[in-house]
Every structure is written in C-alpha cells, then in structure tokens.
Amino acid sequence: MVNHEDLIKNSWNEWSDTWYVGYRTDEVISKIIAHPESAFHHTTYSIIKKAFPNMEGKRICVPSSGDNHAVFAFCLMGAKVTSCDISEKQLEYSSNIARKHRWDIEFICDDTMKLSQIKSEEYDLVYTSNGVHVWINDVNSMYHNIHRILKSNGSYIMFDIHPFMRPFGTSPTEKIHVVKPYDLTGPFGEVPTYKWRIQDIMNAMISSGLNVKHIEEMYAEDSRFWVDESKEEEDKRSQEELDSLCNWKSNPLAALPQWLSIYATK
User: Fold this and answer.
1) pLDDT tens for residues 208-226?
2) Confidence of residue 235 (pLDDT cuts 50, 70, 90)
3) Tens of pLDDT along 32-58?
4) What is the CATH number for 27?
C-alpha cells in the first residue's frame, strides 16, 4: 500500500512534467533575474527585507521549494541557498535552471516534516512559500525541524493561502457555498491534502520554540488569484469583469484576506 508521502511525491513528479512546466519558462525565469523581489508578495518581501536588509552571505533553507522561484531570488540577492523538496523531478528541473545560469544552489531531496539530511543550527533563515502547508500531515514535526535547523536567533518567514479561504468554494461566478467546516482539517482527496487552521499553524510554531514576532493578512493584488490557472487561456471574461473579482461588493469572498505571512525567530 502506497503511503501518503510516496503518493504525494509520485504525484508531484508527474505534475512536474505536465501543468507545472509553465513555472519554468524562459520568460518567467527572466522576470525573476530582472526583479528578484517579484518572487514574493510585496508585503512578505517587506518583512524579509526588514529582517535581512542585506542577504549577502546569509544561509537560507527553502523546504518544499516547489517552483524554486524564492530559491532563485534569494540566490540572486547574494544568499547561500539550500532547496529542499520531496519531488526529485521538481529539483531536477530547478537544478538544470540553476546550472544554466551558473547559480550556486544546493538541492536536497527531503521531506519538510523531517529535514533528515539537514544539520541542526545551520541557517539564518528558513522560508516556506505558498502551497506548503496543504501537503503537510504533521505541522508539529515540520516546525520542530524548522526550529532545529535554524541558528540561534535565526528567522522563519512563511507565506501561504490564508486559512479563512479554506471553508469556501473559490469560484467568484457562483453563489458562495461552504465546502467544509473551518475546523475540519483533512485529509482530503485521492492525493491527500490538509486545510490547517490558523491555530494549528501558530500552535505548531509556538510548541517548536519559535517566537512569533509579526503577522500580516493580505488581499489578492489582482484577479489572477481567482482564476483557475489550468483554465486561464479558456477564460473569456473581459478585463473589467476580471478586475471586479477583487471587489468584495461583486465578489463577497474578496472581503476575506487571501494570504497570510508570519515572521518568527528562534
């Protein structure tokens, strides 16, 4: 019987060859090279810059690195970066990009809940980006190991979908409907995902020994948040209709924060 971790790994290896290709185009990578800060939500980037005004020589680990956009950006800012992901394919494609541009990045295939190949007290910053927590079935283990690999006084910064978005279907063309109670956390689906609450994330951080310093709840900056990426080319709405998706009077879900960033220290 395939366990959850293997099922997720196999799925991501498959997706790396299919719909995820769009995250690795020359156009996308060129934008990051020209503007590394574009790899982050501007509010999250302001938190990063306040914590680290100068990235030069800082050791940064990015668990569940996914598209590796943040990894590339940190490298371009002068940091020494370790990219960790459970998917060998994601790492393979990203290491090819790094090799092409002669970026000195360490790639390690590892589970974010274990980080078994990462030594303790190695990093100045651990950063997790959008879409990490949904694949984590044990947030306490994840944060325990993030705390473990941080240096004394090291920092952790996260950016992810706000848990308030999880109970609702996100199609703004349909009447708002609840798809789950807020406190039902999963697993959901054939490839298991988890919809953690704010208390689950915060309590896991606190239990690990991290000290929460600052929290930001952010809104979608444009309509792309509300558009299904896999059907974006099929979307026939006008620009005016797309712009209205960020207006809570026409799209009530826009009244809720869509993003969450948390800054904590060891």
Assistant:
1) 999 999 999 999 888 778 8
2) low
3) 999 999 999 999 999 999 999 999 999
4) 3.40.50.150
Residue with tokens 């689906």: 189
Q: Report yes or no on 248 lying in a domain.
A: no
For residues 96 and 89, give the distance between their C-alpha atoms in angstroms, rounded to a whole number: 11
Q: What pTM, to 2 d.p., does this model score?
A: 0.89
- Write the burial class of residue 109 (CB in 10 Å: 0-12 exposed, 13-18 middle, 19+ buried): middle
Return the pLDDT at 43. 96
**What gap in Å lies between CA 157 and CA 60, rounded to an integer?**
11
Residue 96 tokens, joined: 């090819």
- In a domain? residue 244: no
Q: Is the pLDDT of residue 229 over 80?
A: no
The answer to whether 47 and 160 have CB atoms below 8 angstroms apart is no
List, in order, residues 6 or more apart from 149 with CB less than 8 Å away.
61, 115, 118, 119, 120, 121, 122, 123, 126
Using DSSP, state whether 240 is helix, strand or coil: helix
**Residue 252, in any domain of the structure:** no
List the domain range (segments joined by +) for residue 82: 4-166+185-230+258-265
Per-residue DSSP letter, 184? -
User: For the chain, how many structural domains are there in total?
Assistant: 1
Tokens at 170, concatenated:
């996100």
User: 180 lies in a domain?
Assistant: no
Which residue pairs from 229-235 have beta carbons closer than 8 angstroms and sit at least 24 positions apart in sequence?
Answer: 229/19, 229/22, 230/19
The CA distance from 72 to 93, in Å, is 13
The per-residue pLDDT for range 132-187, each reduced to its tens digit, is: 999 999 999 999 999 999 999 999 999 999 999 888 876 655 667 788 888 999 89
